[in-house]
Amino acid sequence: MLGKKKNSEQRTDFVYAGKTQTKILLEQPSESNHYISQKSYLYGYDVAQLISKKSFAETLLLLFTGELPAAANARLLERLMIALINLGPRHPAVKASMTAGVSKSNAEHLLPIGLSVLGGKENGAQEVAEAISFIYANIDKSPQFLADSLLKESAEELAQHSGEFHLVAGFGNYYGSIDELTQAHADAVLSPTVEDKDQHCTYIDWGLAFVERLESANIGILKTGLAAMVFCHLGIAAREAVGLYQLLCAPGIFAHGVEQTHKPITAMPMLSDEQHFYQQQQTLVGDRANDK
After folding, report:
1. Based on the number of CB atoms within 10 Å of its own CB, is 105 exposed (0-12), middle (13-18) or buried (19 or more)?
2. β-pair type (37-42, 45-46)
3. Could you read off the pLDDT of 235-282 as tens digits, one per residue?
């Protein structure tokens, strides 16, 4: 009996909320009809005022962090948004959307198809989250010492690897070389922030020093690593970064996909079975270190 009474007391604490709760948005009901809203507030800011006075990037950061950003941080996000607006037709997420488009999938399905691929671990949103976790976990370590240690640990595997190699999430090579395009875009995105004396660039400085040390091994920054460094600077956590990265890459994924809907299916090459190869999933050095 005592056991039943105890269980009964515990179950009384397990009560569902009476209504959905959120700190993000407050809707003020209309005086004439309480089922519709008269005003809405995003983290306390009148959305009507945000529309007239703030940029999309400022409002986006407010949505994900709960605070309006400094102007310099909003400009940093805007630069990253441009850098990621089109991953290019060779990216698997874009290619998936293009294939669906030329196959005459409904237009409303193209973006979800591409984003489902972009959510993956290699060059996808999950890699951004892992790169953020890697930076946060190692921010107090010397980036040069850490780079040397990881390169030494992976030297044999790197020497045998002829294709794309990710040393850790966000950092690797592309078709066997440093990704020069991403390197140039990273300079354009990060330099104004690094050169701003009013900015404290702890995470960006650490990441750049880490990348510089890797260059001798033909390894550089990847798009996922660039996004991770910016998100760390802006206070975006790993879980939120998954969706934000997909959001920033979405325009190019849809644009390429919908373009193909206007073309015949013969506009896309049909690869033979002999032209496909299957790659065993790579285990990152950082993952192995965490498993120990």
Report:
1. middle
2. antiparallel
3. 999 999 999 999 999 999 999 999 999 999 999 888 787 777 666 665
Give the integer Cα–Cα distance in Å for 80 and 248: 8
Helices (H), 180-274: 180-195, 202-214, 223-234, 238-260
Question: Which conformational region is residue 120 in: left (phi greater than 0), alpha (psi within -120 to 50 degrees), or beta?
Answer: beta
Q: What's the rounded Cα separation, in Å, for the pair 236 and 248?
A: 14
pLDDT 10s digits, 53-63:
999 999 999 99
Tally of CB atoms within 10 A around 134 = 26
pLDDT at 289 over 50: no
In this structure, are residues 193 and 199 in contact, taking their beta carbons and an 8 Å threshold?
yes
Question: What is the reported pLDDT for 163?
Answer: 77
Contact 196, 254 (CB under 8 A): no
Tracing tokens 């390429």 back to the chain, one arrives at 256
Q: Which two tokens stand for residue 91?
A: 């990216």
Count Cβ atoms below 10 Å from residue 230 Cβ, excluding itself: 28
Per the document, the length of the chain is 292
Pure H helices in 31-162: 47-53, 56-65, 71-84, 92-102, 107-118, 125-138, 143-153, 155-160
- pTM of structure: 0.88
Q: Which pair of tokens denotes residue 1?
A: 């009996």
Distance CA(109)–CA(210), nearest Å, equals 39
Helices 238-260 and 92-102: angle between axes, nearest 10 degrees: 40
At 175 the three-state DSSP class reads coil
